[in-house]
Specification:
Blueprint (H helix, E strand, L loop, with lengths): L3 H7 L13 H11 L11 E6 L2 H7 L15 E7 L7 H18 L2 E7 L11 H9 L6 E10 L31
Antiparallel strand pairs: 1-2, 2-4, 3-4
Helix pairs in contact: 2-4
Length: 183
């Protein structure tokens, strides 16, 4: 990739992974990038649990009734956590770190997908975050925002046409108001 713009256009969620492990340097690059994510007042309230154990990946793939099963085929899961006592905007800080992971994966030629955990539920009705906490022995003060599944992209992957949604961009107010005061 030659530019951030190209990276942003190419990145898309990958929910099917080709078999194979990740290179150690790729895992280090992913986690190193996450550690460089911005955080409010430089609180660095985020924490990460990297999981490559196949049994744990299988168990984590059951954290939600829908939208997590593909995790069992990923080479790596990065569980994105944050400490609400360290920052009142921990959700935003953890989300920024997760986005950095997604972009770094694309830059490395890997596939990745965000799996939302916060405010979701396991098939048992238990909060998904509590399920993940139990599986990985996460301390009580940390909250689970999401899991980023990472793996090798399949050989055959169609590049979707991306429509530009310019109608969702508004200048100086919603609906294109020119004075910025809603008039």
């Amino acid at each position: 990739m030659d530019s951030f713009s190209e990276l942003a256009q190419l990145r898309r969620s990958t929910r099917r992974f080709a078999p194979g492990e990740l290179k150690q340097e790729d895992v280090v690059a992913l986690l190193g990038t996450a550690l460089q994510a911005p955080s409010s007042k430089n609180s660095r309230c985020w924490h990460f649990v990297a999981v490559d154990d196949k049994d744990l990946l299988q168990r984590l793939s059951c954290c939600k009734e829908h939208g997590a099963s593909f995790l069992s085929d990923a080479a790596l899961a990065v569980v994105v956590l944050a400490d609400p006592l360290a920052s009142d905007v921990w959700v935003e800080d953890a989300s920024a770190a997760a986005m950095m992971l997604l972009l770094q994966a694309e830059d490395l030629g890997l596939g990745a997908c965000w799996i939302q955990v916060r405010e979701r539920f396991a098939p048992s009705g238990e909060p998904a975050g509590e399920y993940v906490r139990e599986v990985l022995s996460i301390p009580l003060q940390l909250q689970v925002e999401c899991i980023v599944a990472v793996g090798r992209k399949p050989d055959t992957r169609r590049r979707p046409e991306r429509e530009m949604l310019w109608e969702r961009v508004h200048i100086n107010g919603y609906g294109g108001n020119e004075d910025g005061n809603g008039r």
